[in-house]
Every structure is written in C-alpha cells, then in structure tokens.
Description:
Distance between the termini: 30 Å
Low-confidence stretches: 70-76
Strand content: under 5%
CATH superfamily: lambda repressor-like DNA-binding domains
Order of helices and strands: HHHHHH
CATH architecture: Orthogonal Bundle
CATH class: Mainly Alpha
Structural class: mainly alpha
Largest sheet: none
CATH topology: 434 Repressor (Amino-terminal Domain)
Mean pLDDT: 87
Number of strands: 0
Shape: globular
Helix content: 55-70%
Number of helices: 6
Amino acid sequence: MATRAAAANVRAELGRQRRTRRDLAAAMGVDEHRVSKRVRGLVPFSADELAVAAEFLQVSVDDLTGASTSATRRPAAGVA
C-alpha cells in the first residue's frame, strides 16, 4: 500500500468535505494523534483503518489508495 498516496488522498478528501482529523479520529475510535501520523504519511494506514476512513468519507478504499485512478488512466489495448 502506498503510504504517501493514501495519506494525501485522505487529507484531500477531508479537505473537500470540510471535515477534520478529529472527526476522522472519532469515527475510527482512536485519538487524533494516531490519525494525524497517518494523514501526514509518517505511519501507514492499516487495511482496517483505510476501510473505516473510506466508509466515513463515503468513498472507496481504492479511491484512498489511488488504485482506481491508475486503472482508469490506462487505455485499453488497441485503443488510442
């Protein structure tokens, strides 16, 4: 899992939705310091943490990890 990509995507989505790290921490049932380390990319999100964050932000885990964007940017074989 790309720690920096997930951190950046969670941070961006929090900003878009005007939600705080404190809001996410409450949803995850952890303290804000724990969330802050993950959102800053210092500590990777666990799979469970990403699942909770995705549910809280109403996006997919792929949206947070960047997995969906790489797949959608690649053209299909034979398509220009």
